[in-house]
Amino acid sequence: MEILYVNSKEEGSQKGYEMIREALDNGAKVFGLATGSTPERLYEKLTESDVDFSDAISVNLDEYVGLPGTHEQSYRYFMEQKLFNQKPFKESHLPDGMNEEQAEIERYEAVLSKYPVDIQILGIGHNGHIAFNEPGTALDSHTHKVALTQSTINANKRFFEKESDVPGYAYTMGLASIMKAKKILLLAFGEDKAEAIKDLVTAIEPTEDIPSTVLVNHPDVTIIVDQAAASLIK
Q1: Does the annotation count 127 as an active-site position?
Q2: Is the pLDDT assigned to residue 9 strictly greater than 70?
Q3: What does pTM read for this prediction?
Q4: Is 62 assigned a catalytic role?
């Protein structure tokens, strides 16, 4: 596990951009993508560049259950606005929030089996969740439907008119699904991520109580943190 310390989200996003670009230049074909505010500047840097994903595949971590891809708060819509419309991939895959549970799990697992991820971008939640794998998620989990915790709903409600509009469930890649990526790039910025980063980088063994700790068993993880997010580990 390599930790890169940066002075700001801007610098960290630039480092992330350089790593994605290097992976593409070195033959990476399948890119695992995350949504949310953490990778947003990284995606801006990709759209501002001359990088070409037209021969590449993207697979996303998760999607809200019950939101169609055209909904402004769906993760498909987010990805289209932030990246895909400007830098289209040959194919872009996300979970389908409108599909029936078992059918969607089987469908998305087939996608992940067909397209093994070369490099996976991750953020991290305040409670150590990665994707929507909340505390208590089995370390050997694959794609599944998850009930979102109140803390995750609280973190997401700023994007909706009212809290009751926030979906209570999501489809997500499981922890074992994420671990299949050849390389993992985790970004964390801001003081509110400091506790989660400390728990991750000081972990000796994975624990279901802190889902991100599954990464201690991955052979190639890079964590990019700004000073605020790293404040409890220095």
Answers
A1: yes
A2: yes
A3: 0.94
A4: yes
